[in-house]
Amino acid sequence: MLNNIAAIFGGATEVGDYESIATVTVGAGGASSVDFTSIAGTYKHLQIRGISRITSGSYAQVLFTVNGAGGSSYSRHYLFGDGSTTSAAGVASTSSMFGGVMSGSSQTSGIFGALVTDILDYSNTNKNKTIRTLSGVDGNGSGYAWFSSGAYLSTTAITSISIVPESSTFVQYSSFALYGIK
């Protein structure tokens, strides 16, 4: 299965081409963000895999920013379904990119959302950077499946990534892992 996923990257990527760079697991006090810094430019692409839950509400979006850039440095798009309805939207010139949907405190205890985000050509200084995310969360018979994409509207290489919940904070045991793809 991983080779099938790897084929998305042009067929030249094998399972062994994924290299663990860093993993952050949120401690007992929670966290308002998870940050990956000093990312070397030695890979073709990056991938973030995460599970998380937030301290309030039913569901919340996870947002990504890179290199500390805010303002109108990004565009973002999403498509989601919850079993009975679907929705899609996009925003140009915004302050972050969507990184998926996560479970909130009003959901069944212990239920976390999951995401896989690909950051394509992150070190290429000849083009803007794009991301794509598949995520989802079970809501004990409801829940969401979420697909999003975004662009960092800069040709600057990505050297840091910040992941924040749209509202509230990440709970203990939320975890994000960063991988380099050769």
Radius of gyration: 16 Å
Backbone shape: globular
The strand count comes to 12
Number of helices: 1
Q: What structural class do helix, strand and pairing data support? A: mainly beta
- Through-space gap between termini: 18 Å
Overall pLDDT level: 90
Q: What is the CATH first-level class name? A: Mainly Beta
Strand order of the largest sheet: 1-12-3-8-9-10-5-6
Report the β-strand fraction as a percent range.
over 45%
Strand and helix order: HEEEEEEEEEEEE
Helix content: under 10%
Task: Sketch the major β-sheet.
Answer: 8 strands, antiparallel
The oligomeric state is single chain
CATH topology: Jelly Rolls
CATH architecture designation: Sandwich
- Tally of individual domains: 1
What can you see in these coordinates?
This protein has 182 residues and is mostly beta strands. The protein has one helix and twelve strands. It has a single domain (21-181), classed as Jelly Rolls (Sandwich). The chain has one helix at 2-7, and strands spanning 18-25, 34-36, 45-52, 59-66, 74-81, 86-94, 97-103, 113-120, 129-138, 143-152, 161-165, 175-181.
Concise account of the structure shown:
With 182 residues, the protein is mostly beta strands. Helix content is 3%, strand content 50%.
List the helices and strands and how they pair.
Layout: H1 2-7, E1 18-25, E2 34-36, E3 45-52, E4 59-66, E5 74-81, E6 86-94, E7 97-103, E8 113-120, E9 129-138, E10 143-152, E11 161-165, E12 175-181
Antiparallel strand pairs: 1-12, 2-11, 3-8, 3-12, 4-7, 4-11, 5-6, 5-10, 8-9, 9-10
